[in-house]
Amino acid sequence: MSRSGRRYKPLQQSGNGGGFFPARCDRVRMPRARVLLLCFLGVLVLAAAVLRAYLPNDTAGAQVSRVPAADLSKDRSSHKPSKVSAAQISRLASQVDAARLWETHLRPILIERLPGTKGSLAVQQHITSTLSSLSAGWAVDLDSFRSPTPRGQVTFTNVVATLDPTARRRLLLACHYDSKALPPDPRAPERVFLGASDSAVPCAMILELVTSLDAQLRSFKLQRLPVTLQLVFFDGEESFEEWTATDSLYGSRHLAELMASTPHPTASSHTTLLQAVDLFVLLDLLGGPNPLIANHFDNTARWFDRLIAAEKRLHRQGLLKSHPSEQTYFRKDVYLGPVQDDHIPFLHKGVPVLHIIATPFPQFWHTLDDTEENMHRPTVENLTKIMAVFLAEYLGL
């Protein structure tokens, strides 16, 4: 419920005409010295109560964070990326393994993966086992919940991986791993919707990013810096029938609410996991040839500029394939309107969003032709290299 919807109960008036505090000292008939002493003791009690509210409670054995939300917002807005050198760009690009991305990360996701099914569970296990095998030491959590849908109660599971859960702030990199239920093709009833671009390829890109950067992320984690990297693989992005506010975005709606009500750090009384998110970067509908990716939000335009710069620098160094000009993908001179996606529940709660999505949508969007055969391998590899440079600069790897 929003702040404007809360009801506040007024303080009850005491019988002697006073408010919340006891009657004033000068209304008590007693010697002056005793009056002064009692007033002094009252001040001490009040001061102790105030200090207790604002200082850690050591006797409880918990360290209570007193970082105001305003400080997190200031740190977020003042965060400055590092600028990697030409040699670093070459090394980052060389670490991206296109064959591993395709064969190891993507292929196991190219199955029907409707929420609550065996296919969904298989993809969950693929994601969690891949992350658990890395040396960086990811904390992997399954956020499972049940929700009503047009097809009855369904179990959804978001996969959430955090590099350093104790860090004050996090860069959140997200995609969705569920697939959409489409009517069968009467000419080929055995075919199912695989959602290669929507969103198997983005999931595989994220897995390849953290695999290729594993050594750097391990060293980064050991530095215990204020910002960390968090990955979210959403379940239930797709609608079961027609897209509505209640039949769509099941996983992201649930996780946004959960993070908004979860203190961070654990014993904090001032900040939540949602307020700890510096930037919400969402990948979707990637994998087709010649994607046009526009900037959707003015308040994150400086981060979109980093993507443009990374694309240009990689192009100039000859590190991108089938890439005709230095600014092929990321464009600020076009805008085709807003897109409903997993960022919406977070955007509505004030989280800055960087939406990396092809617009206009690919021609095979929400058709049985969204398959591996229609993906463009050089483009997928190029976008992964651009994202590797972006992560390295944001985190200072």
* Sequence of strands across the biggest β-sheet: 1-2-4-3-5-8
Helix content: 25-40%
The end-to-end distance, rounded to whole angstroms, is: 40 Å
The string of secondary-structure elements, in order, is: HHHHHEEEHHEHEEHEHEH
- Overall number of structural domains: 1
Number of helices: 11
Q: Total strand count, please?
A: 8
| Radius of gyration, taken over Cα atoms and rounded to an integer in Å | 26 Å
> Which class of secondary structure composition applies to the elements?
alpha/beta
Query: Which quaternary structure do these chains form?
Result: single chain
Q: What's the overall geometry?
A: globular
Give me some keywords for this one.
Aminopeptidase; about 15% strand; disordered N terminus
Task: Describe what you observe in this structure.
Strand 1 and strand 2 form a beta hairpin. The protein is globular, with a radius of gyration of 26 Å. Strands 1-2-4-3-5-8 form a six-stranded mixed beta sheet, sandwiched between helices. 36% of the residues lie in helices and 14% in strands. Helix 4 packs across helix 6 and helix 9 packs across helix 11. The protein has one domain: Aminopeptidase (3-Layer(aba) Sandwich), CATH 3.40.630. The two termini are 40 Å apart. With 397 residues, the chain is of the alpha/beta class. The longest helix is centred in the first third of the chain and has 23 residues. InterPro entries: M28_QC, Peptidase_M28, QC/QCL.
